[in-house]
Every structure is written in C-alpha cells, then in structure tokens.
Model the fold of this input.
Amino acid sequence: MVNAQKFIAQATEEIRQEAGDERVVIALSGGVDSSVCAALASHAIGDRLVPIYVDTGLMRKGETERISYLFGDMNLHVARAGDEFFEALMGVCDPEEKRKVIGERFIRVFEREARKTGAKYLLQGTIYPDRIESEGGIKSHHNVGGMPLHMEFTKVLEPIRDLYKDEVREVAGALGLPSEIQHRMPFPGPGLAVRVLGEVTPEKVAVAREANQIVEEELIEKYRPWQCFAAVLGLGTGVKGDNRVHGWIIAVRAVNSRDGMTADPLHLPYELLERISSRITSEIPSVARVVYDITSKPPATIEYE
Ligand code: XMP
Done:
C-alpha cells in the first residue's frame, strides 16, 4: 500500500464526492473492515453516515455494549433483533441452512432499519480478497462481498476495495481505532450459531457466549492466536454430588493460520488447559466436560459447522 495517511486522505475525499448530499448507511459489525469504513466515512460526511449495528443475539459477550460505546459518538443505530433470529432458527440444524436463515434475517432487519433513515446509498467494507473470492465463487457460504442488493440503494461505496487485510489493520491504527478493533480475531458472520452444534437455542448460545469469553480471556493476550473460541458440542454425562447428570460438552479450539484456508492447533501448556477447563466447569454449572481440539485444518475446519 501507499502510506496509510495518504490512503485516508484519498478515501475520505472519494467518499465525500461520491456521497454528495446524500445519507449513507453501513452495516457495522465491529470487525476491522466495517469499522475502518465507518471511521473514514464519519470523517468525510459526519452525521450523514448512519452506521447500523444488528444485534443478532448471536454476538459475543459484551459486544453490543462495546460497539455502542466505541461508536456512540456517531449517528449509530442499534437494532436489537435477537428474538427474531432465535425464532427463525427454531428447528434448524443443518449448518448451511443456519447460515442462510441468519443471512436472510440479517438483510431483512438491516433493510428495515435502513429504510427508516431515508438513506439512498450503501457503504460496504469489501476488501480485495473478498472480491477475488466472490468472483472465483470460492467460499460462497461466507458472507463475503457484502449483502445481496435487492434493496433500493442507488449507489454502493466501497472505499477499501483495493486493500488487503493487513493494510486495513494499518489504516485502522492510523485512524486511531482502538487496538481491540485493529487486531480483532476473525469472528464469523453467523456468530455463535456456528459454535453450537445442531439447533440454535438461547440456552446453548448463552453457554457458548460464557465459554468463549473465558477462552478469550485466557488466551488472546498471551498467545495472540489467529482464532480461539469455545463450541458447544452437545450433552454428555457428568457427575454432581452422588448423581450422574447431563451437562454440556465444550470444545476449546485455538489455531494459528495465515489466511484461514489451513490452520494448526496451538501447543498449549497443560496447566493452562486445566485452568480453562476448571474455569468453564465452575463458572458455567451446566457444563459437564471440556475437551481441547488438536485437529489441523484440513481435515477439520476451524469452526465446528
Ligand atoms: P472454516 O470453519 O471454514 O473457517 O475453516 C475459516 C474462517 O472463516 C470463518 N468463517 C466464517 N466467516 N461467515 C463468516 O463471515 C461464515 O459463515 C463463516 N464460517 C467460517 C472462520 O471463523 C474462520 O476464520
């Protein structure tokens, strides 16, 4: 890339010109791409940028509060739509079907909110690898390349379309975005729904959320993995007092990767794994068992679904 400051100046000017006097909406996820776009556009057109954050009910712990805090000085719209997502997901067990249901619901909610703002233009955080992947038809199940446009937007702005991920992170730093956003681990669009096997219920998602938080607290700062998380595999047998009981089985996964296409598990110290296991089982009483996944990708994927 040229230098970050120069890019910021050019992109800001481009957004200003393309937006003219119109209002522009962006789906802000809190990921580095949409955050950089929102920051650039906010510099360029101020209050005429309307970032819309959809809380799907499938977010990580404290995510909605964090986004509201970090972007609160923008004209941020928060759509709390968790109930809608859980209702749509009832009885859905197939991973691809889950993605489809979540993707469609997301668009429905986003459209509804966008319509309220009267915006005619859409800003998207598409980056260079997204364009290559969508053109090549790879990973079509991932919501890369933005949302399908059956919305009535007359223009789509893509200010970071020529950047690679590391360049986006560099720009994030130069824009003064907090390090937690600049260095954020990839988090799948369908959120915790792909970290619970089978049907997505509020209870399973709540367990996944707490367990993910513990794994992140224990691993991110010290090990800086490409990704680390916990997934709810299903129910198994545990013991409480004198009784055999049913409890959730949690898988902990921590991998390093260059681009997500292949991945290797981290060799974590046994003491750390024991601490994670005992924290998860004591802080989430409905969990009976914790396992650490040592499978590479391939043959496994990074996520569980
Ligand atoms: P897999 O599980 O395919 O993951 O090995 C590779 C990378 O992609 C992320 N991932 C997704 N991201 N929507 C997304 O936005 C999805 O449906 C999705 N599925 C997987 C995963 O977290 C990893 O970084």
Q: What stands out?
A: The mean pLDDT is 93.
